[in-house]
Design a protein that fits this description.
Elements (H helix, E strand, L loop, with lengths): L1 H12 L1 H16 L6 H10 L1 H15 L7 H45 L4 H20 L3 E3 L4 H8 L4 H18 L6 H20 L4 H19 L1 H11 L1 H6 L4 H27 L1 E3 L2 H17 L11 H20 L4 H27 L8 H5 L5
Antiparallel strand pairs: 1-2
Length: 380
């Protein structure tokens, strides 16, 4: 009985990864024109924006908060990046856009912490404000430029081989040094996944620059959150605010920083998306789909709505799962409205499941007296 329970728990903890594998196998067998290199590359590229968004979104969730303005932030900052490019160039435009995202996150954090407004309400307000500014800036239309060179490089270009070797060496060294118990399932997965990606890149040139940039951003997020004393404080604050206070951890500072990071990753995602297409639309459906898909992907990845638990890597697999699903739907010739319906259906099922598991988890409260000792080593 106990062995069966452990197997179920293992499946639940790695559900996003398993869903990616199962959907890929199903699509390769049944979906027309799915199993080819170009399509796999398209899936990875289309996942980049949401994957970058999910880095900061996961951190906010770990803090037991939520940021409903991420879609609007990504859209506005992408629009800002494209709009400023003719005068400032891509480099300065990106810096300004990311700074704007950081300020939006700072605003959200201050409103939540200082005014004690629930993040759900606060970020809905921020989303509405951003929508208004976006329409004023773009006249409700689309901003675009005629220079497609950067977008072509991001999608079809290649980094120099020496750069790839350095990135590979850094990722492998990071995994080996940060996983002393490499025999665990998560440890093996963390090592095998980048290794498989590396082999695929070397043999098929599957990974374009935008995908590699996304992997780097995800790796930095994983390192900060899971492998630094500062990053582990996010889990303590989200898991038990009272324990964080007793341990001397600055809860308010962590929450503000969490929203700032979320704003930065959303702005990076929107800006990189705009760079890839050399344009950005003001249509509300863009921000809405980004928010709903990121929300569903992070929850499917195992990040708890109640805080204290989450994984950036698993959130990425959640994003990848949705992109494979949407691509499969396209291969079957089904429309965009089916994508939205399935997205909402999956989100509803996962939220219901999380509510049930959180109810069971509440029955076990008080069974980790060692948490305070853990928290005391993470003061900030």
């Amino acid at each position: 009985m106990r062995k069966k329970s452990n197997i179920i728990s293992l499946i639940d903890q790695n559900r996003a990864m398993l869903l990616v594998i199962l959907l890929t196998i199903f699509s390769c067998i049944f979906a027309p024109n799915f199993a080819n290199r170009m399509n796999f590359s398209t899936i990875l590229i289309s996942a980049c924006m949401l994957a970058i968004i999910s880095v900061g979104f996961t951190i906010v969730f770990i803090l037991a908060q939520i940021d409903l303005s991420i879609g609007a932030t990504a859209q506005f900052c992408g629009m800002l990046c494209v709009g400023l490019q003719p005068n400032l160039g891509w480099g300065l435009s990106l810096i300004v856009a990311v700074a704007a995202g950081a300020l939006i996150g700072l605003f959200n954090g201050i409103v939540v912490v200082k005014f004690r407004i629930h993040s759900f309400i606060a970020t809905i307000g921020t989303m509405t404000i951003i929508r208004g500014i976006l329409h004023l800036y773009s006249d409700g239309g689309t901003k675009s430029i005629d220079d497609y060179s950067l977008g072509e490089f991001l999608e079809t270009g290649q980094f120099p081989i020496w750069f790839i070797i350095i990135v590979i060496a850094a990722i492998v060294a990071f995994v080996v040094l940060s996983k002393p118990d490499i025999k665990t399932i998560n440890g093996i997965a963390t090592l095998v996944v980048p290794t498989v990606f590396i082999v695929l890149w070397l043999t098929t040139k599957l990974f374009s620059p935008i995908v590699i940039i996304t992997f780097i951003i995800i790796s930095v997020g994983i390192f900060i959150v899971d492998h630094t004393r500062f990053g582990k404080g996010f889990y303590v604050v989200g898991g038990n605010a009272e324990t964080a206070w007793l341990a001397g951890i600055n809860k308010d500072l962590y929450i503000i920083l969490g929203f700032v990071i979320c704003g930065i990753t959303a702005s990076l995602a929107g800006s990189i998306f705009a760079m890839r297409l050399s344009s950005m639309t003001a249509r509300f459906i863009f921000a809405q789909k980004a928010l709903m898909t990121a929300l569903a992907a992070v929850i499917i990845g195992g990040t708890q709505l109640t805080g204290g638990k989450g994984s950036i890597l698993k959130s990425y697999f959640g994003v990848l799962m949705f992109q494979i699903l949407f691509n499969m739907i396209g291969c079957f010739g089904l429309g965009f409205e089916i994508q939205i319906f399935i997205n909402g259906l999956i989100l509803a099922v996962v939220v219901f499941y999380e509510a049930y598991t959180n109810y069971k988890h509440d029955l076990l409260k008080g069974q980790r007296p060692e948490l305070l000792k853990e928290a005391q080593s993470m003061r900030l």
